[in-house]
Amino acid sequence: QAQLAESGGGLVQAGGSLRLSCTASGSRFRIDTMGWYRQAPGKQRELVARISSFGSTTYADSVKGRFTISRDNAKNTVYLQMNSLKPEDTAVYYCNADQTIWGVPRTSWGQGTQVTVSS
Known about the structure:
This protein is about 0% helix and about 55% strand. By secondary structure, it is mainly beta.
């Protein structure tokens, strides 16, 4: 199963931008869909965006038009460009990656990166 390492979180003012990165390593099995989720204090983890290995994307309604997910398959890296950030985007952002290992679906998670948007 792949190990995921996220980077790019931080503190930004409302209206600002951040770019998150997540790189998968340590597995010889193909990385399928990769995604970003977030969890705010006292709330459940929720989907932000996902991208298939072919580039098909899905976004949460709350981030459509502001966030863009992309990936570099050669680097096993997924990105999340976040523009027009709002205080309600404050959360820990987690990267995940789906694989099929010996016919069994597996999902890996990163350790999370904090995004804080000040008003």
